[in-house]
Amino acid sequence: MPNYQWINFVTGRGELAQRLYDENKVWTTDPELGIYIQQALRMFNALTYTWKVDYVFNPSTLWNSLGTLPDSPRVRTLTDTDCYTQMEYMLLEPPSGGFWTGTPQFAIADFAQALQGRRDEVLQVSNCNQQLMANIALTPGTRRTVLSDNVIEVARVRYLPIPSLGSPATLFRDDTVAQEFYEYGFMQAQPNTPQTFMLSSEPPLSWDVDIPPNLPGTYEAVTLLSGQAFVPPASTPLNIPDDFMWMLIWGAMSDLLGRESEAVDRQRADYCLKRYLDGMKLMLKSPWIMLANVTGVPVTTQSIVAADRYTPEWDSSPTTFGPFIVTGGIDFFASPQGTSIGLTVLGNAPVPVADTDFIQVSRSNWNTILDLAQCFACFKMGGEEFQAALELEARAVQACAAENSRLKSTGAFADILVQRGLMQEVDQERYATAAPAPTR
């Protein structure tokens, strides 16, 4: 991958320290400065869609997630401990990660509860933790299937009878009122092959089918799952894209500073909530996949619902279907199995770790990174000092908007390029209106 080689991490931290009038790094330590630069790079990428990466791999399974494929440019590497450390810096507490060594204003359990609550909300709104749930038990002659309580939402269901007895059937989503209107007597239907599944009038964690299955087998479903519980001091994956870690921190901080306690700070809590909501809107528009090819031949990307509608039972031929790529929620897709797949995706922002690592930003955008990092660093000051620093943030966001506009102008169909990962939401809306903004 091409890379910038003009400013390294240690020099960048020094320039940020100069910005803070703390060249000896007394009030803002070297590790802390590094965290703020890393977060600024992630925020910059989320705002500008800069780090487009070509990714070639040979999938061994039909369904995959770019968040978990080990060599993916979007692999999710960050944990709750990473968040705790930054939050501790920003609240003037000792940066001890998942162990609490700070003041009585907070406890690590407070951090974990706030962070997990916001993470769970992000998973629901953004649909960024879709997975294939296989081998779901079914009982012949029974309409209802009950799921485990880690399932947030069901996007697709297939009926898989034992192969020697019958063929798979993808079920289309419907509702009970439609069955009443158009399938008279459906409640008395004898067991056979189900055609639709229903969610809207069913209890939570369940679906019904229109016709009870007549053959033994299983279901498989594309589901949105909850994340793992945070149990510090153990480190637990965040299960959201790395470049939105900052958004999760703002959400948790809004809860910590907004509760009735000696730590209450309504002004900064309101600011944190606004940044969290801004991050959620960005995440919903993020162009996680842009181009695709199979064995070097360009192919289209289709939503799950479009693939099922126009190429029925496409996944009954997992090595030869299409060729096209099927996209679901953020990072979740299906591609022909056992062949070379090429994707152009929005990769994680490259973040420096070692002192000699070069910071991956152009000379023209370095001041924008410093503005964002300086605003992160000033949060702990509170009061007028922090309010004054918000002018830097506004300037940085404006610069990011200009950079995004510039990058869009480099292609005639840039608007289509950034929409290809959003087609599942377009073809089968998850909300009757625009995705609601959380209000907590």
Could you describe the 3D structure shown?
Strands 3-9-5-6-7-8-4 form a 7-stranded mixed β-sheet. Strands 1-15-10-11 form a 4-stranded antiparallel β-sheet, with no helix packed on it. A 4-stranded mixed β-sheet has the order 2-14-13-12. It has helices spanning 9-19, 30-48, 80-90, 108-126, 176-182, 245-258, 266-285, 304-310, 366-378, 383-408, 414-417, 423-427, and strands spanning 52-57, 63-65, 130-137, 144-146, 151-161, 169-174, 196-198, 206-209, 217-225, 289-294, 297-298, 301-303, 325-327, 332-334, 341-346. It has 3 domains: 1-51 and 350-408, no CATH class; 52-74 and 288-348 and 418-440, no CATH class; 130-225, no CATH class. The chain is an alpha+beta fold. 35% of the residues lie in helices and 17% in strands. The model has no long low-confidence stretch (mean pLDDT 94).
